[in-house]
Structures are given as C-alpha cells and as structure tokens.
Design brief:
Layout lengths: L10 H4 L15 E2 L11 H8 L13 H11 L6 E4 L2 H12 L5 E6 L7 H6 L2 E6 L8 H6 L5 E7 L11 H10 L5 E5 L19 H4 L3 E6 L12 E4 L2 H10 L7 H12 L1 H24 L11 E4 L5 H10 L2 E2 L1 E3 L3 E5 L3 H14 L1
Parallel strand pairs: 1-10, 3-4, 3-5, 5-6, 6-7
Antiparallel strand pairs: 2-8, 7-8, 9-12, 11-12
The chain binds 4'-deoxy-4'-aminopyridoxal-5'-phosphate.
Length: 355
C-alpha cells in the first residue's frame, strides 16, 4: 500500500519531540519525577471546587477575580497581572510574542525541559548557554551571548533540574548588561521553596518596576499543589503582558482552576506550612546524600539533583526497581522530587546502594 499524502509540517516541528512527562507510578510507588506537591488537596480547596460556576458556561476569559486577588497582593494594577493555564503557557505566549524567524532566544542549559521548544515553535533560534560547573546559570556567558538578534532571555531560579538560585546581585548585574528592549523572563516556578536570603525575588523586589522588560512568572502547580488544574501567572508591564494575552489561546483558564487558585490564596498559611515541611525534608535529603559522597548542588526548590553522568540510566532503573519514579536525564543526572516522608529514607537507601 502506498503511503497517503499528508499535510506538510514545518520540518523543525516534525523533528521536535513532544514534551516528555515523567513515568506514571504504580499504586505502591513514590512518584518523584515531576516536582509535584506530595500533600493531598486541602478540604477547603475541594469544597470551593464543588461550588465552581456552572460548567455549561464559559469561564471569565481573563480570570478577573484571581487577577484582582494577585494585583492586591502584589500592589500592582490589574493589567499588570496575567493568568494562564500553567506558567508554561505563559512562557509560550511571551516567546511567541517577542521572537520570530531570524530572532534568538537565550537560555541556560540544562534547565526546564520546555525551554528548547519555545523558540522553535516561534520559528526563532534557541541559544543554550551551559550551566557553570556548580550547576548554576553562567550569567556572564549568557549576557555575552545576547546579540542584536536576541529578543528574549529565559532565567530559571531556582534552576530546574539542578536546584541553585540566581542571587539578587547577579540578577541586577545581568539586567544592567542586557539592552532594555530585550525581554527577560524570570521563571520563579519554585520561589516559595527558596530560603536563601541572597536569592533574587522578582516580586518582593518589584524588579519589573525599574525594568519594564522583566516579566516574573509564578505558578500554583508546585507550592500550592494545583498541578492538575493548570494555573500560573505573570507580573510585569501591562503592555508586555498585553502581548501575552494576544498570543494566548482564548478561554484556556478553566473556572475550576480560577476557583481553586483563589481558595488556595485564602488558605495560604496552611499551604506555606506544608512548604516548610518540604523544605525540611529537602535539607535532610541533601545533607544525607552529601554524607554518602554525592556532589549534590545546593537546592532551593522541591527537588534535588544527583549528578550520575554515564550511569544515569542504570541508576534510574535501580530507583524504579525500588518503586521510586525519578526523572533521569541520560548521560547527565537524575532529578528527584522531595516527596512523601517515607520516600526520603527509601531514596537514601537506593542512593547508598548505587553509590
Ligand atoms: N517553569 C519551570 C522552571 C518548571 O519547572 C515548570 C514545571 N515543571 C514550569 C515552569 C511550568 O509549570 P506550570 O505550567 O505547571 O505552571
């Protein structure tokens, strides 16, 4: 049989692998592959969800109630807040808005797995800049890589999957080196887990005020435990966010997601107590892994990085055999989310046996 003629697909898209999700875990396994929150949803959030607006109606396209809450919280205007179905959606919207054919997008690598696809989908060229030896952003090299074709720079702090932060001083120096007409996206998906006092805090420091080219991204997926509902937000200059609103798929934030996000802000104290527990477990995990001889970078997020190099696949298989699903990056390392309490000892046991 002859092959049917199929519609032409852009070659760079045909060659692009779809987003790779961590393996699904069996009922007895710990799923530590997607940096999810291990706690059950709060009863108050579930209760609010049960009263979501009738689902035969479309949601509010701009999630006004949630934006009002966030605007009040951060002391910004309503149009300085943008909400989308996950912060990954906002990454796509902003890069689409800023970069096109012939343009460049600079990002650190290794970093969040979605980054390489962002310029590609926009028709632009990605410029990955290797992390430094201590698994941090090499901001000097990133600033050196900015050319007159650069339209956007992606900064991830704490860096997924390695864990270290960008400091406030490093960020200030970097912004000073980048032309003011280049978009800088400060991806702070894990901000609530940061305890280092010298870390950049894009919202606390209101960096977007002095620098309208900086947009700060946050999410309800991690610290707030709403990964399954898909809701994230950006704070920045209204005109820059208008561009994200223009490229976004209309009506993609569901009423359920907006309701749950608002209920989570109402229950923030309880949720941040859980974050503190995860941070304690992170400290215990990093300390014990280092005691076993692993060179674990300083993690300020809800995951840790094991630099397993050539042994990555074999070691990931050993974790899986012990019913722990981790996220291996072949030839490089393994990212392990900080999960349920009993998962910590199990992770440490496997880590010691493969060491
Ligand atoms: N940025 C970073 C650095 C991430 O690790 C993730 C999730 N893995 C996201 C953005 C996207 O999160 P979400 O779309 O769930 O808000």
């Amino acid at each position: 049989m002859t092959e049917p003629i199929l519609p032409r697909i852009r070659p760079e898209i045909a060659a692009l692998a779809p987003y790779r999700q961590g393996k699904q875990a069996g009922p007895d396994a710990f799923k530590l592959s997607s940096n999810e929150n291990p706690f059950e949803p709060l009863p108050s959030v579930l209760e609010a969800l049960a009263h979501t607006t009738p689902i035969n109606r479309y949601p509010d396209a701009t999630a006004t109630r949630l934006r009002e809450r966030l605007a009040a919280r951060y002391g910004v205007d309503l149009d300085q807040v943008h909400v989308a179905s996950g912060s990954v959606a906002i990454l796509y919207q902003l890069v689409q808005a800023a970069a096109s054919v012939g343009d460049e997008v600079v990002y650190a690598w290794r970093s969040f797995e979605a980054y390489p696809g962002l310029p590609l989908v926009a028709g632009a060229t990605g410029v990955p800049i290797p992390l430094s030896a201590d698994a941090r952003h090499d901001l000097d090299a990133m600033a050196d890589a900015v050319t007159d074709r650069t339209r956007a720079v992606l900064l991830c702090t704490p860096n997924n999957p390695t864990g270290p932060i960008i400091t406030a001083d490093e960020f200030t120096a970097f912004v000073a080196r980048v032309p003011a007409d280049v978009l800088i996206i400060l991806d702070e998906a894990y901000a609530e887990f940061v305890t280092a006092e010298d870390a950049v805090d894009g919202l606390g420091a209101r960096v977007f005020e002095d620098h309208p080219n900086v947009v700060v991204l946050r999410t309800f997926s991690k610290a707030y435990g709403l990964a399954g509902l898909r809701v994230g937000y950006a704070i920045g200059h209204a005109k820059v966010l208008d561009a994200a609103r223009a490229t976004g798929i209309p009506l993609s934030v569901t009423a359920a997601a907006e309701t749950a996000a608002i209920a989570s802000l109402d229950a923030e104290g309880e949720l941040l107590d859980r974050v503190a527990v995860i941070v304690e477990r992170r400290t215990a995990l990093v300390t014990a892994l280092r005691a076993q001889g692993w060179e674990v970078p300083d993690s300020q997020a809800n995951f840790v990085w094991l630099p397993t190099g050539d042994r990555t696949d074999e070691i990931a298989a050993a974790f899986l055999a012990a019913d722990i699903v981790v996220r291996p990056f072949s030839g490089d390392g393994i990212r392990i989310s900080v999960g349920e309490e009993p998962s910590i000892d199990r992770v440490l046991h496997v880590a010691s046996t493969v060491r």
